[in-house]
Structures are given as C-alpha cells and as structure tokens.
C-alpha cells in the first residue's frame, strides 16, 4: 500500500492514554515522516523487519502495525506535542487475561529519561486496572542488551529465553528473552515506576 491513502476502518482502536507528561494515541499514517526521523540502526534493533529507509517504507510498517489483529499501536507524544516514538499492546487476549507490550521505539533524545517508564506506567495501568488482566509480558532479542536492561528496570521478572526464536531485521536468528509482570506484582511495580518518575 506504499504511499496510498488509508481507510479509517484500518485503524483498529481509538484508545488514548494520558498522564505523566505523555499522551499515547493511536498510531496514524500521518506519523510516518516524523517517526522515520527518529529511526536509526540502534533504535530499530530488535525489530523483525528491516530498518525503514524512506517514508513509504515507514508508512507500510505503520499500516502493518495498526492492522495486525489483537494489536493496539500507539504514537508516544510529549507534552509539547512532539512525537517521541511508538509502542504497542499486542497479542491481547481479554478471555485469557493477558497481553504483551512491545514494538517500542524512541528517538535518541528520550533514551534513559522518563519517557519509557511513563509510557509503561500508562500501559500497565490500562492492562491491570482498566482491563483487569492478570499478566503483561515483555520480550526482547537476547542480543539487545539495552532493551533487556530497560525491561529489568521496570520491575518485570525475567522468565527465560526461547532459543532461535526470531529472525531479526538483518536476517540473523536470535533468542528471545521473556519477562512478565503479573497482577499480584503490579502494586509494587507501579510504586517503583512512580518513584522513578518522581525522581526524574
């Protein structure tokens, strides 16, 4: 669908989450150029598709994200209206009480600051308090040490690795490390995230 117009029916959700200096709104085709400007090889590490090299490629990636069943893709927007990146719920199963959080990318200007913990606090709050789910999972390529460390700082529990589980954007195979937060752990994780944001 490169460069083509989108039907509003292709945007699969209308959920917007706001707080802690951020707005998470549905990812949209108009975000392609601004999101592309945030992408480089390091920020794209861990995605299974090749690094988008132009606006059409990014538009195609956004289209695939917003039309994937059981996935809710968000644009992460700062208080000044700037697009800071993207993140998603995926594999949402309300019947089974679980969801995964991932497909996360931020521009380098927001690495290591409050953006990721604030976004995860919004997502976890929706999952546990809004939907009443029992489990939120997160995963990363075992070679992506930056993402692994970021997930551990959230307070998620490392569960283990699935060997030769995924093909990276460069065509190499890698292990996937899984983490989770379950409902009984959520109050402590929430308190930890709120403390991080207060310090920030």
From TrEMBL:
Q: Which InterPro entries match?
A: Acyl_CoA_acyltransferase (IPR016181), GNAT_dom (IPR000182)
Highest taxon listed in the record's lineage: Bacteria
- Report domain N-acetyltransferase positions: 22-156
- Pfam families with a match to the protein in the record: Acetyltransf_3 (PF13302)
**Full protein name:** N-acetyltransferase domain-containing protein
């Amino acid at each position: 669908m490169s460069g083509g117009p989108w039907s509003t029916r292709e945007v699969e959700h209308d959920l917007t989450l706001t707080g802690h200096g951020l707005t998470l709104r549905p990812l949209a085709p108009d975000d392609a150029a601004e999101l592309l400007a945030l992408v480089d090889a390091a920020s794209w590490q861990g995605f299974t598709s090749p690094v988008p090299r132009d606006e059409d490629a990014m538009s195609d990636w956004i289209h695939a994200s917003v039309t994937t069943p059981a996935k809710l893709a968000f644009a992460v927007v700062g208080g000044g209206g700037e697009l800071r990146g993207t993140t998603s719920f995926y594999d949402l199963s309300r019947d089974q009480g679980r969801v995964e959080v991932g497909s996360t990318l931020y521009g380098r200007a927001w690495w290591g600051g409050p953006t990721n913990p604030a976004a995860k606090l919004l997502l976890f709050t929706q999952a546990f308090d809004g939907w009443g789910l029992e489990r939120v999972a997160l995963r990363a390529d075992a070679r992506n040490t930056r993402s692994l460390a970021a997930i551990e700082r959230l307070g998620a529990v490392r569960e283990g690795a699935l060997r030769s589980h995924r093909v990276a954007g460069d065509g190499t195979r890698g292990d996937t490390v899984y983490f989770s937060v379950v409902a009984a752990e959520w109050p402590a994780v929430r308190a930890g995230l709120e403390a991080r944001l207060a310090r920030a």
